[in-house]
Design a protein that fits this description.
The chain has helices at 2-13, 89-94, 99-115, 120-125, 127-142, 161-203, 207-219, 233-242, and strands at residues 16-19, 23-29, 32-37, 40-43, 49-50, 53-55, 59-69, 75-86, 147-158. The protein is an alpha+beta fold. The chain has 4 domains: 2-55; 59-159, 2-Layer Sandwich (Tetrahydropterin Synthase, Chain A); 160-203; 209-243, no CATH class. The termini are far apart.
Length: 243
Amino acid sequence: MYWLWYVLILFLLTGIRVIKEYQRGVTFTLGKYTGMKKAGLRYVVPIIQRMPIIDIRVKALDIPSQDCITKDNVTVRVNAVLYYKVEYANKAIIEVEDYNYAVSQLAQTTMRNIIGEFDLDGLLQQRENVSAKIAEIVDKSTDPWGIDVVNIEVKDIELPDSLKRTISKVAEAERERRAVIVKSEGEVSASENLAKAATTLAKTSGALHLRTLHTLNDLSSDQSNTVVMTIPLEILKAFDSKK
């Protein structure tokens, strides 16, 4: 008879549960929801009661790469990461069969739909807006499940190889265009300065002669240079004036 008591005691001890601080226990008595248990030592009557334990910490859910078509009919592969947590453990158990799988599928579908509203340039330049719109829709859809979507971040946008080459050619052409513009603007500025210098030299008596002497002084520093002397017209005019 003693072994029966031992079996009964062990049977009753199987109902002891320890709920951690980051967990919540959802109690069902004879299949009916009867309450939610917080952290601590809890007891569940074997056979009669059942208590699934739900983790309420923030979870990172990887959204696998999806083939998405943009508004301008460009196929890209996009993957993202979703951060969410269970806000109401009872709803996460009662309202949806597998909330983790349901959130993943909803996020994938929503991501494809939202990316279809942007063209390729908008998708690449407004990644934060894309992520915000996906998070808003997923958060609203998961409210009945007791799920709170913290954030969604688009991690990578993979373009086809042919499109990558095209974009590289466009970027290279743009850089060449800017280089030509900068060079031409520099030439214009230089020509304007040269015109101003020529005008100043022409108006000032003896300026060209001084400039010539200054140039000769610079050339004399290197003995390997051969200097061909030129006589400015101003000097000849000076001789004419003496006559």
